[in-house]
Write a structure and sequence with these properties.
Two copies of one chain form a homodimer.
Chain A: H1 7-14, H2 20-31, E1 36-37, H3 38-48, H4 54-66, E2 70-74, E3 80-84, E4 94-98, E5 104-107, H5 111-129, E6 132-143
Chain A binds a DNA duplex through helix 2 and helix 4.
Chain lengths: ~150, ~150
DNA sequence: GTAAATGCAAAGGTTTTGCACGTTA
DNA sequence: TAACGTGCAAAACCTTTGCATTTAC
């Protein structure tokens, strides 16, 4: 018996309007574990809400990225990909990217060891460069099983 | 008294022709510590070799990336950036990216600690996912001194 | 001499912008 | 109802492709 989605309150506090396209995009992102591009999202939402425009997808994603609800990735194939990074069931992870076929695999096993290392690194980098570091991304590049 | 550039031999062994545009691009990349886009490279080479075309820049960069002489980065501003990663004076490093103004800072201090961590991680990831991992990138995102 | 490399122009694909119309709070 | 959000069309970019010409070996 799910209550209202957790992002409802967030939008209200935040002062932005929770419109149908925004709900549809958030709902989609919260149900997938894929690495969707703007077009992917447009096409998927279009099936359930045919009125949506690609422009709105881009603008909503920008908003969600700025608000820290979504992460934007560039894996080198010319289009950005988006992932929800807040909410229940969300675990931080990194990516293995096949440089041949573009396949992307999530990997989580490194996260524990990473934490202890990166907390120190980030705070010392912040001090040294006067940089307010918000986060980091780690991408592993190589050849996947099929392409190897 | 510099001898012939180190990449001369490399190209010959490799079976590719060492043309004027290729030399000009490699020469530029070996002298800069900036994070140049294709257009940046085109404009800089154009000053010394006006005959060059943007297409050749892209094709040469692809070649150098495939050959492992150059790394290609995407920092989220819609254009790829290129860095020489072979040759004398080249030290591996990672990047701090300002999400407001796009400024990019190289950081090297993490490299030592990183090595011991990542050698293990990469080999265990390789085994687990049957992925032949060639390398990784770490990007730190935040606000630089001016934008903070 | 011959295959490889180049430059131009055009095409392709992704993302952004301007503006009139709808919608949310 | 007033400000915010949307959709469409067009524009702006970055990158790739086709093809005739030039160049390196």
């Amino acid at each position: 018996m799910p209550g209202p989605p957790w992002w409802q309150e967030r939008f209200r506090d935040w002062g932005y309007r929770l419109t149908i396209p925004r709900q549809a995009i958030l709902s989609l992102l919260s149900k997938t574990n894929k690495h969707l591009s703007a077009i992917d999202i447009y096409l998927a939402v279009h099936r359930v809400y045919p009125g949506i425009g690609l422009t709105t997808v881009y603008r909503t994603l920008d908003l969600l990225v700025k608000g820290g609800l979504v992460l934007k990735f560039d894996f080198g194939d010319g289009k950005s990909r988006y992932e929800l990074c807040k909410g229940p069931d969300i675990k931080p992870h990194h990516h293995l990217v096949c440089t041949n076929c573009g396949r992307i695999i999530d990997c989580r096993e490194f996260i524990d060891k990473e934490k202890e290392v990166f907390e120190n690194v980030q705070s010392s980098l912040s001090t040294k460069y006067n940089f307010d570091i918000k986060g980091h991304q780690i991408h592993f590049y190589g050849l996947c099983e099929k392409c190897n």
